[in-house]
Design brief:
Elements lengths: L2 H6 L30 H5 L13 H8 L11 H9 L8 E7 L12 H20 L5 H7 L5 E12 L7 E12 L3 E10 L5 E13 L4 E2 L4 H10 L4 E2 L15
Parallel strand pairs: 3-7
Antiparallel strand pairs: 1-3, 2-5, 3-4, 4-5, 5-6
């Protein structure tokens, strides 16, 4: 039976007052073309279900800073996160990620494997948000896209401090702690937005690598200057080969 016949058999009085009105088939625009109606007229037909009007604070926090949306360090959301979570005050990059039900292990807490993957996402967010805007196209192609002098993860650590359970939103802070001639070290900290506790901490040693000549390379000067711009406590050891220890800020 055609759809327009089905619509005519339903009395208007039987429809709920808060139900959205159906668009006639003649008003549905074809794929790839803009609707001829104005945006104001179209917005009046949009109906938001009541169940979506009352979202939890974690959902509102997640929607305000999606993982696919880069937020600058001076964004009001980041300032509020640092104010509400002092343990992230020294981290110029903060990535907001939701904790999914599937991120838990058999014990009902966040899996260390997922926390480790969040660390990786936090490091990538740091490079794309804070370092990439200060690079020329040639340096960006190499360091960010890995088609020249790029970066390779040499080693990393993970220390679990407090359990984290669903539902929750995780705040992943990333900062560069020290830099040498051909490598640099980063610190990553994950904080629970629901409890305010530090869930995990970790470190990463990243070595610069020349993918064209298949050998180690020095940290590009543009990358080093960008790190000095965003990091207030960057330890620069130059050409030293001493073994460095991470300097965690107290929780």
């Amino acid at each position: 039976m055609p759809l327009h016949i089905c619509q005519r058999t339903i009395p208007r009085a039987a429809a709920r007052a808060d139900a959205p009105s159906l668009l006639p088939l003649s008003t549905v625009p074809p794929l790839g073309f803009a609707h001829p109606r104005s945006s104001a007229a179209a917005s009046r037909r949009i109906h938001t279900p009541p169940r979506l009007a009352h979202r939890s604070s974690q959902q509102r926090l997640w929607s305000s800073s999606s993982a696919t949306t880069e937020q600058p360090a001076s964004d009001p959301l980041h300032q509020r996160l640092r104010r509400d979570h002092p343990s992230l005050d020294r981290f110029p990059s903060i990535l907001v990620l939701p904790l999914h039900w599937g991120d838990q292990d058999a014990s009902g807490t966040a899996s260390p494997v997922m926390i480790y993957r969040h660390f990786e996402s936090g490091r990538l967010h740091y490079f794309n948000e804070l370092i990439a805007p200060h690079l020329t196209p040639a340096t960006h192609t190499g360091f960010i896209l890995g088609r020249g002098i790029g970066r390779i993860l040499k080693s990393s650590t993970l220390e679990l401090l407090n359990p984290c359970t669903y539902p929750d939103t995780l705040l992943i802070g990333t900062r560069t702690d020290w830099v040498q001639q051909d490598r640099f070290g980063q610190q990553v900290r994950t904080v629970s937005a629901r409890t305010g506790k530090v869930v995990a901490e970790g470190t990463a040693t990243i070595v610069c690598f020349d993918h064209k000549h298949q050998r180690k390379a020095d940290v590009p000067g543009e990358v080093l200057e960008a790190m000095r711009r965003v990091e207030s406590n960057l330890r620069d050891f130059g050409a030293t080969r001493d073994v460095l220890k991470p300097s965690f800020s107290p929780i």
